Amino acid sequence: MLILSATCQTCVPCVARVTVVLAACALGVATSLATAAPKQSRPNVVFIAADDLRTDLAAYGHPQAFTPNLDALAQRGVRFDRAYCQQAVCNPSRASVLTGLRPDVLRVWDLRTHFRDTLPDAVTLPQHFRAHGYRTISLGKVFHNQGVRQRPVTPFSDPVSWSEPPEFAEGAHWQDWVVPGQPGLPSRRGGATQCLDVPDEAYFDGQIAAAAVRRLQSLRNEGQPFFLAVGFWKPHLPFNAPKRYWDHYDRAQLAPPSSVLPPDGAPALASHSSPELRSYEGIPKEGPIPPEQVAELRHGYLAAVSFLDAQVGRVLAALRELGLEESTIVVFWSDHGFHLGESALWGKSTNYERDTRVPLIIAAPGHETAGASTRALVELVDLFPTLTDLCGLPTPPGLAGVSLSSILRKPSLPGKAYAVSQHPRPYFNGEMSVMGYSLRSADYRYIEWRSIASGAIVAQELYEANWSAAEHRNLISDPSAQPARLRLEAAARSLVPPLLPPRSLQ
For residue range 7-65, what is the model confidence (pLDDT) as tens digits? Predict the structure, then answer.
């Protein structure tokens, strides 16, 4: 029987729901690791994605996060402290990363539109590697996941990108849940948190990590360079993780949200009502979240982060024990960040720092200053040209990003002048009427909201740079900030072209 702590849900999950083969799935590689991996001319790539992970890692300075495996990866790679996504929601961000194109070029701004429907001839990052002799494998949520009510003709997982059918790519996040006494996946959405004393394989990410370890064992002996994408589902809601990951934290010692009010002087359209969180059982449908629930949610998020870290650690340990570490480039990234009560927000879908800034760690043996960090401004669209550069492949024309290989070698380089993100309004229902564009510079964040119909600017925001906290006061009308405003307005005119005619957000 599985025992629960006093703070967990008082139930015992069905063994049938827990896919446990610990002896075979964890790291059962010790007996076959003595010989070196076969030599090959090009490096392998392990491309690890997280979902909704902001920079709440010890390596990024979080005072309480228990993330030893990602911290160790940062010590042997380069940590990018100023990396930004192109839209703070899953599908547009992942489509942008994996095609190297911005959301406006893809015309993908929501959770339901497939980039193959809007830009069918786009060549994805794994598709490009496959065309140049790599074996490409997808495990988990790499492209957007195909939810219960989302059944496009072309799967979101984009089978043409991979050498074999993707695994663990479909399903809704709320299905990643243990229902006591019920085998299989749940039939309806449950609570926002779950703390049970179960094995890692009770949840999707434990199963994905086990599959990645098995796949690395077989890839090692094939003699062909590989591109293995491992997409973990955490720490996305629901915030559920085995009890031992909750036990890393004392809830009473966790800090409450800072800056719980919206930025002073911000336009109403810049925020939202936190509908994603409010769709879970037990969360108020409107109004403030009770303090005890805020504490539980923030505790659950960190537990999910530590659970994610442990699964990343299993993959990295397999690389090391299989003798693949020195011949494999590892990229760890998150599709976007997340608000946990800061600025009266829960979730993503804004143009603010908490949502657009992401962790990014690249370990490229022989190509980096190991253990370094960089303050260079970079964007997730830079990953496609970076990997083609590091692996000696031709870079397709027309990509939006630039290679980061020079920053890997010399982390003191400045990077870009601006990181550009965007998000439409309204977002959750109806036809978008306004698009917000954010320019992040070294000293400011400038946001302008443009009417889709006319192109006119309907609202503006300007905030002083703060790399670790929420925006505070909109300076757009502050006389002392006018030089920065004029500079950033001019940059926006050159960096952000007029939007194509609108379409309905489904």
Answer: 344 333 333 333 333 333 333 333 334 355 566 789 999 999 999 999 999 999 999 99
Q: Which residues are catalytic?
A: 90, 144
Nearest to 109 by CA among 489, 454, 421, 455: 421
- What's the CATH superfamily of 42-417? Alkaline Phosphatase, subunit A (3.40.720.10)
Q: Dump pLDDT digits (tens) for 216-227.
A: 999 999 989 999
| Domains in the chain: boundaries | 42-417, 421-495
- C-alpha closest to that of 47 among 319, 240, 415, 302: 319
> The tokens 């190509």 sit on which residue?
367
Instruction: Look at strands 372-379 and 78-84 and give their pairing.
Output: parallel
Residues 444 and 277: their CA atoms lie apart, in Å, by 29
pLDDT above 70 covers what percent of the chain?
A: 89
DSSP code of residue 367: S
What's the pLDDT score for residue 223?
Answer: 86
State the pTM of this model. Answer: 0.91
Please state, in angstroms and rounded to a whole number, the distance separating the CA atoms of residues 283 and 186: 19
Query: In which element (H, E) is residue 3 found?
Result: none
Residue 135 has pLDDT above 90, yes or no: yes
Element (H, E) at 422: strand 419-425
The CA dihedral of 466, 469, 470, 475, to the nearest 10 degrees, is -20
pLDDT in tens, 378-419: 999 999 999 999 999 999 999 999 999 999 999 999 999 999
- Contact between 45 and 331 (Cβ < 8 Å): yes
* Bridge partners, residue 436, by sequence: 423, 449
Bridge partners for 420 per DSSP: 439
- Nearest Cα to 99, choosing from 71, 78, 128, 79? 128
Residue 169 has a pLDDT of 95
Peptide bond connecting 365 to the previous residue in cis, omega within 30 degrees of 0: no
CA-wise closest residue to 393 among 164, 131, 99, 142: 131
Residue 351's contacts (CB-CB under 8 Å, 6 or more residues apart) are 88, 270, 421, 422, 423, 436, 437, 438, 445, 447
